[in-house]
Specification:
By secondary structure, the chain is of the alpha/beta class. The protein has helices at residues 24-32, 53-59, 76-80, 88-92, 94-107, 123-135, 153-168, 180-186, 209-217, 271-279, 300-306, 315-319, 326-331, 349-362, 380-389, 410-425, 437-443, 466-473; strands at residues 13-17, 43-44, 47-48, 61-64, 141-145, 172-176, 189-194, 197-203, 235-243, 251-256, 260-265, 285-290, 293-294, 308-311, 339-341, 346-347, 398-402, 429-433, 446-451, 454-460. InterPro entries: AAA+_ATPase, ABC_carbohydrate_import_ATPase, ABC_transporter-like_ATP-bd, ABC_transporter-like_CS, P-loop_NTPase.
Length: 478
C-alpha cells in the first residue's frame, strides 16, 4: 500500500471499496491502531491519532470487525463494557454493569438483554453486541468492516439503520463492504482501492454498478451470471426422508448430473444442516444415494471416497489452515497422491508442489507470498479459492457449497461463478446454498426452499422468482 489519502467528515458515510487484497483491511488496521504505518498519519479533528489501539480509542476511533472479538462465556454487558472496567466499583456491581449496557443495547435495537451469554446468541445478535461495544466508547469516528457478511436480510436492514442513525448523530463512518447495494444505500462518497492505491474518490451518486465494478477490478466484468449448461438426465444425488434428529425433518430431493441445485431459505431454516448431513458431518436418518449407491450414515471418509466435496461456510475455522503453509491446505484432501508410500505416509515434496501449483492455477489463486506463506496471509477471496481448490485434484461427482461467495469481492465472485458452471458442464453435480437471493436464482437450474427445517417446495428456473422464494421461505403457499 502506498500514498493513500482520503477524508471522512462528521455526519458522512464513506464507503471503502475494492477487491480482496486491495488494501482495505490494512487501512482499517492502521486507523484502529493495530498496525503502524511506515509513513503518513491519521488525523482526527486536527489531532494526530497515536498508532496503537489504546491511542486510537482515546482519539475517538472505534472499529466494528467482520470477525467478532467477543468473549463467548461472558455476558453481553461484560463484553460491551470490557474496555471500561478500570473502575473497581463497576467490576463488583453486576447490576450497575447491566444498567449501563441496557441503553446501548436499546440504541442498536437488540432484542436481548445485557445478562444474556454471548455463546447463546446468533451471528446477527453477536454483531449487534460488537457494534454496541464500539458505541460504548462514544466514538467520533467508526470503521465498519463487512458488518453484514454473515447476516440475513432482516439483520442486514437493522445494521444499515444503525449506520444511518450514526450519520444523523454526526459520527464519521468509514464503511467497508462487498455488497454494492449497501454502498449505494448508505454512502455519500466512495473511495475505491486497487493494488494498494486509491484509484477513485467520487460521490456515490456519480457511480453506477458497472462503473464501480470496473474501478474495483480494473476491467469490465461480464454482466449477470454465466449461461448454465444443460443437465444430463441421470440422477447423481438422491435424498429421501432425511432428518438429523434436531433441526431438519423429512427432506427429499434429487440432483441430476451437471445440475446446480440451489437451496434457499431464511437463516436458521435448516439449509446448512441438510448440507452437513448429506456430507456425513451430522447424524441422520433417511436414505442418501450417490449414483445409485447408498452412503453410510455419518461417514465423511466414505463420502470423500465416493467423490463428494464440501465447501464449508466457515472457511477460517473449518476450511483451511491459517497458520500453516497454503500448500498444506491445498493438498490435504489428496495427500495419498503426493506420498512416496501410503503405508509410511512420507510426503513427496516435489509431487506436492506440482499438485498445489496446478490447483492454485485452476482457481486463479493470488498468493503474493507464495504457497509456503501462511493461509492467514491471504485475502478473504483468495482464502475461499483455497477452500474450493483443494477439492479439485480430481473432478468431484457432487460438490456441496455453503455460502461460497460470502465476504468476497465482485471479481472473485465472477471467477467462482465461472468455475462452478465449468464444473457443471464437465458433469459434476452441485448443491449450492446462498443467502444472496440474486446469486441462488442466477446460478441454479432449480431451487429448493427451506422453511422451519422442512423443504417447502422446489421451483424450476422459470418459476424461481424472488417473490416465489420468499413466499415459501416464510411459510406461504406455493
Amino acid at each position: 500500500m502506498k500514498d493513500v489519502s482520503f477524508t471522512v467528515s462528521s455526519g458522512e458515510v464513506v464507503a471503502l471499496a475494492g477487491e480482496n487484497g486491495a488494501g482495505k483491511s490494512t487501512i482499517k488496521n492502521i486507523i484502529g491502531g493495530t498496525l503502524r504505518p511506515d509513513s503518513g498519519h491519521v488525523d482526527l479533528g486536527g489531532a494526530i491519532a497515536t498508532a496503537d489501539v489504546k491511542g486510537a480509542r482515546h482519539s475517538g476511533v472505534a472499529t466494528v470487525h467482520q470477525e467478532t472479538s467477543l468473549f463467548p462465556d461472558l455476558t453481553v454487558a461484560e463484553n460491551i463494557l470490557i474496555g471500561h472496567l478500570g473502575s473497581r466499583a463497576m467490576m463488583v456491581r453486576p447490576g450497575r454493569l447491566r444498567r449501563t449496557a441496557a441503553p446501548i443495547l436499546q440504541r442498536v435495537g437488540a432484542g436481548f438483554g445485557p445478562e444474556a451469554i454471548v455463546r447463546d446468541l446468533s451471528a446477527g445478535q453477536r454483531q449487534l453486541v460488537e457494534i454496541a461495544k464500539a458505541l460504548a466508547a462514544e466514538p467520533r469516528a467508526i470503521v465498519f468492516d463487512e458488518p453484514t457478511a454473515s447476516l440475513n436480510l432482516a439483520e442486514r436492514e437493522l445494521i444499515m439503520r444503525i449506520v444511518d442513525q450514526l450519520r444523523g448523530d454526526g459520527v464519521a463512518v468509514l464503511y467497508i463492504t462487498h455488497y454494492l447495494e449497501e454502498i449505494t444505500r448508505l454512502s455519500q462518497r466512495v473511495v475505491v482501492m486497487r493494488d494498494g492505491r486509491v484509484v477513485a474518490d467520487r460521490p456515490t451518486s456519480e457511480l453506477d454498478r458497472a462503473t464501480l465494478e470496473s474501478l474495483m477490478v480494473g476491467r469490465e466484468l461480464a454482466q449477470g451470471y454465466p449461461a448454465l449448461p444443460q443437465p444430463r438426465p441421470e440422477i447423481t444425488l438422491s435424498v429421501r426422508g432425511l432428518s438429523d434428529d434436531a433441526r431438519v425433518s423429512d427432506i427429499s430431493f434429487d440432483v441430476a448430473r451437471g445440475e446446480i441445485f440451489g437451496l434457499a431459505g431464511l437463516m436458521g431454516s435448516g439449509r446448512t444442516e441438510v448440507a452437513r448431513a448429506v456430507f456425513g458431518l451430522a447424524g441422520r436418518t433417511g436414505r442418501i444415494e450417490l449414483d445409485g449407491r447408498r452412503l453410510r450414515r455419518g461417514d465423511v471418509r466414505a463420502s470423500i471416497g465416493a467423490g463428494i466435496a464440501f465447501v464449508t461456510e466457515d472457511r477460517r475455522h473449518e476450511g483451511l489452515f491459517l497458520e500453516r503453509p497454503i500448500r498444506e491446505s491445498l493438498s490435504i484432501v489428496d495427500l495419498g497422491s503426493v506420498c512416496r508410500s501410503r503405508l509410511i505416509g512420507r510426503l513427496d515434496n516435489r509431487a506436492e508442489r506440482r499438485l498445489t501449483e496446478e490447483l492454485a492455477d485452476k482457481v486463479r489463486l493470488v498468493a503474493r507470498g507464495g504457497l509456503n506463506a501462511g493461509g492467514g496471509s491471504l485475502s478473504g477471496g483468495n482464502q475461499q479459492k483455497v477452500v474450493l481448490g483443494k477439492w479439485l485434484s480430481r473432478p468431484p461427482r457432487l460438490i456441496i457449497l455453503d455460502e461460497p461467495t460470502r465476504g468476497i469481492d465482485v471479481g472473485a465472485k465472477a471467477e467462482i461463478y465461472r468455475l462452478l458452471v465449468d464444473l457443471a458442464e464437465a458433469g459434476s453435480s452441485i448443491l449450492l446454498i446462498s443467502s444472496e437471493m440474486e446469486e441462488v436464482l442466477g446460478l441454479s437450474h432449480r431451487v429448493g426452499v427451506m422453511h422451519d427445517g422442512r423443504l417447502a417446495g422446489v421451483l424450476d428456473r422459470s418459476q424461481a422468482t424472488q417473490e416465489a422464494v420468499i413466499r415459501l421461505a416464510t411459510g406461504g403457499a406455493r
